[in-house]
Design a protein that fits this description.
Layout lengths: L1 E6 L3 E7 L9 E8 L6 H14 L9 E6 L3 H14 L4 E2 L20 H14 L3 E6 L2 E7 L5 E8 L1 H11 L19 H28 L5 E5 L3 H4 L8 E2 L3 H12 L7 E2 L4 E2 L4
Parallel strand pairs: 1-4, 4-5, 6-9, 9-10
Antiparallel strand pairs: 1-2, 2-3, 6-7, 7-8, 11-12
Helix pairs in contact: 1-2, 3-7
């Protein structure tokens, strides 16, 4: 079995995949936790051990740990988790060193591990061209051209941090439930905020999807949304074809079982990846 880990700025997602026999590629169990940059390998191990026990998965059955991380402080903890509790080296995907998807951006090394893993998972499942919209701490729009190459990204502030910034800087505004209002014209503070937030982010999503599709030269690329806040926007626009919360985990599995045998090693003295020569 294989343990896939997506370490994001808000949440850490885990998925256990079968790697042998007819069931190879099956996601057996998945769960998420809140990202804690101070977490140790032992603390992560306790979390993982409890989650897999609930599903009846033996720790000894997990032979590989593959990771997409955008949180450098967790590199050491995940590396310790892999080595001490699963007896293997953590395999960290990076855009510059994976070989499944050509990256034609100006600086491939700057591309986030979650973005490339999600793009790999999306193309494997839905083909190209594609636009992958990630609704997380940031809202990201990943463009994959008709040739299956990662062409580039648009990055906007995420929904939650935008709302938090607005409420914290405006004395008379307050947190409201993020639900669709009855109309765009709000008649009180709550409905006014809901209109601006929900319809505003729907409009942003539709506009950027249209612009990116035109620049890709693809009349109708498939648009897949992922991330914890995808369900807030996706039901209110026809620009998004589907929501898939497994893209990064599935991409990690596909990379680990198709690309080279291991990812970049981690220099634990500084907590960052160290490329191979």
């Amino acid at each position: 079995m294989l343990l896939a880990i997506e370490a994001g700025n808000t949440n850490v997602k885990f998925g256990v995949y079968e790697t042998d026999g007819a069931a190879a590629g099956t996601l057996l169990h998945s769960w998420r936790s809140v990202t804690d940059r101070r977490q140790t390998g032992d603390e992560l191990a306790g979390l993982v051990d409890g989650a897999i026990r609930i599903s009846g998965i033996a720790r000894s059955a997990i032979k590989r740990v593959v990771v997409a991380s955008v949180v450098p402080p967790l590199y050491r903890a995940i590396s310790e988790l892999s080595r001490r509790y699963f007896g293997c080296s953590g395999e960290f995907i990076s855009a510059a060193r994976q070989t499944l998807m050509p990256v034609i951006t100006a600086r491939p090394a700057e591309l986030g591990a979650d973005l490339i893993a999600g793009a790999i998972g999306a193309v494997e499942k839905y083909g190209a061209p594609l636009i992958v919209v990630g609704f997380g701490t940031a809202t990201t729009f990943a463009a994959i051209d008709p040739q299956g190459r990662y062409a580039g990204t648009a990055i906007a502030p995420g929904i939650e941090i935008s709302v938090d910034a607005l409420v914290s800087r405006a004395a008379k505004l307050f947190d409201v439930p993020l639900v669709l209002p009855r109309a765009a014209i709000g008649t009180d503070t709550a409905s006014s905020l809901q209109s601006g937030i929900i319809f505003g982010f729907v409009g942003q999503t539709e506009y950027l999807i249209g612009k990116i599709a035109a620049e890709l030269g693809a009349p109708k690329p498939t648009v897949v949304a992922t991330g914890g806040l995808a369900e807030l926007v996706a039901p209110h626009t026809k620009a998004i074809d589907r929501v898939d919360q497994r893209l990064v985990l599935d991409g990690l599995y596909h990379w680990a079982t198709t690309d080279r045998a291991s990812g970049d090693p981690v220099d634990e003295t500084i907590g960052t990846t160290k490329g191979k020569a």
